[in-house]
Amino acid sequence: MAKQRTHFVCQNCGYISLKWMGRCPECNEWNTMVEEIIMPEDKLQEQISLLKQPAIALDIEKIDLKEEERIKTGINELDRVLGGGIVPGSVVLIAGDPGVGKSTLMTQIIPGLKGKKILYVTGEESAKQLKLRTERLNFPKSFQSKNFLVLAETNLNLIINVIEEVNPDVIIIDSIQTMYRPELESAPGSVSQVRECASVLMQIAKNTGKSILLVGHVTKDGLIAGPKVLEHMVDTVLQFEGERHQSYRILRAIKNRFGSTNEIGIFEMTTEGLKEVKNPSEIFLSERTFGVSGSAVAACIEGTRPLLVEVQALVTPASYGTPQRTAIGFDYHRLSVLLAVLEKKIGIRLGGHDVFIKIVGGLRIEEPGIDLGIVSSIVSSLKDIPVDSQSVVVGEVGLAGEVRSVIQIEKRIQESAKLGFKKIIIPKNNTRGLKIDAEIEIVGVRKVNQALEELLGI
């Protein structure tokens, strides 16, 4: 009997070595090298009959660009993030922290997939547990359960046999880290298993036109578990964000071959499952306290959606030699840049103060148009002067202390006027050619100190 050959694979990045090493030379992580058996060449060439398709080279002019009708999920927030719905033959990866609501979301889309046969493959729960979830989510009485099939299995070869037998239109795999192929000796969730299972499922989707939704785990650092190649293989990667102790969840597109990666969907977790948030601006501002220093309302854009968010700042004298800088929902390095601009260009000394910044509601905003709101809240807290509660601020802050223009200013102004704000501070360059019919005072500023004078009177 031939001796089995082995190699060592990093469980973090997929690096392969013929000998064991304490630290992976590729990603510099410790104790991630795991021994795996190298499959013989003849076994590697064995393919499932479903995957055998003739290779044909096509003339570029003869490729049909007819757009296929997307599959609507019945959840508008999810359809927006996907770019209009699920594309037939696509593979979508949905990842997030434990308990954030991934399986709940996958279950809730089933009633909306009308006329489609769905196969829900669960590797983490039993069929009875999935049945209990459908009852908790109060499926509509009109739902045709005959098109909803449940399979509690982790062996991918058996799953493929069931797929051939029932021929579903949409396949949900919960989760990809629990699937395994018996031809591989490594354990489920390892780099080789996740890579191989995802590759087989991707070929099924491309060759048969079936849509596949993969639920994925994340590591303690918030990264998608498994090899990075998993994200490259799939068509769409959606990140489900949110804290266990907060009711709001944000679905963000990290990669999307069929739509924009700037869109977000906002949900509220309730006892009856996830509910869409139709007007997120109103929700995020519902608990705002008036007449308190260190709070400002900023208008930002996430994809095509305008959002009004509350920015809170707390500036206190430093108790230790080195002042603290903390940012929640905002990039720490950008906060450092804004503090340097305030010191150098505006003349506001913050070297001896601790500065804490928070975007209310669990949001994480990366759009530069929120800069002026951050600066306003910091100065408001430092001077203990409340920002005008009827004003909204918009603008990117440059290193010279100037307020730079932002995109989609009309949507920001309309959203502010809709929620009853009386004044909006915008970059001066955005006022050029601005034609908008809204009952709100528009003030253009060129410098940060001009904006502070309008908001704080200093």
UniProtKB/TrEMBL annotation:
Domain named RecA family profile is located at 67-218
**Pfam families noted in UniProt:** ATPase, ChlI, Zn_ribbon_LapB
List the GO biological process terms.
recombinational repair
* One cellular-component annotation, GO: cytosol
Q: Which residues bind ATP?
A: 96-103
Task: Locate the region Lon-protease-like.
Answer: 354-458
Q: Where is this motif: RadA KNRFG motif?
A: 255-259
Q: Which UniProt keywords apply?
A: ATP-binding, DNA damage, DNA repair, DNA-binding, Hydrolase, Metal-binding, Nucleotide-binding, Stress response, Zinc, Zinc-finger
- GO terms for MF: ATP binding; ATP-dependent DNA damage sensor activity; damaged DNA binding; hydrolase activity; zinc ion binding
Sum up the protein's function in the record's words. Answer: Plays a role in repairing double-strand DNA breaks, probably involving stabilizing or processing branched DNA or blocked replication forks. DNA-dependent ATPase involved in processing of recombination intermediates, plays a role in repairing DNA breaks. Stimulates the branch migration of RecA-mediated strand transfer reactions, allowing the 3' invading strand to extend heteroduplex DNA faster. Binds ssDNA in the presence of ADP but not other nucleotides, has ATPase activity that is stimulated by ssDNA and various branched DNA structures, but inhibited by SSB. Does not have RecA's homology-searching function.
What domain comment accompanies this record? The middle region has homology to RecA with ATPase motifs including the RadA KNRFG motif, while the C-terminus is homologous to Lon protease.
For this chain, the family text in UniProt reads: Belongs to the RecA family. RadA subfamily.
Q: What is this protein called?
A: DNA repair protein RadA
User: Which species is this record about?
Assistant: Candidatus Thermokryptus mobilis
Organism classification? Bacteria, Pseudomonadati, Candidatus Kryptoniota, Candidatus Thermokryptus
Q: Which gene encodes it?
A: radA
